[in-house]
Amino acid sequence: MEKIHVLVVDDNPVNLTMALAFLAAFTIEADTALSGAEALTMIEKMHSSGSAYDLVFMDHLMPEMDGIETTKRIRAWEKLQLESTKLPLKTGIPIVLLSANTHDNVKQDCIDAGMNDFISKPLEKEELDKVLRQWLPQDKIRLIQNAAQTDADIIDTNYDPLIKELSGIKGLDVITGLSHAGNNHSAYFNALCQFTENCTGYAEDLNNAVKTENWEAYTIKAHALKGVLAAFGAGRLSQWASNLENTAKLRLKETQPFCTALLDFRDKICNTSLLVWPSDSSADNNTIPDGVIMSDKKIILAVDDMAENLTIMRSILEKYYDARLAKSAKMALDLLTHTPVDLILLDIEMPGMTGFQFLEQLNRKDSPNKDTPVIFVTSHADRDLINKAINAGAKDYIVKPVKAESLYKKINSVFDSCGSKTDPMEENLKALINAASSGDSKQAETLLKEILTLTKSMGGDTHSLMTEIAKLILNFDFERGIRKIETLLHNLSLKKK
Question: Does domain 6-149 bear CATH number 3.40.50.2300?
Answer without folding.
Answer: yes
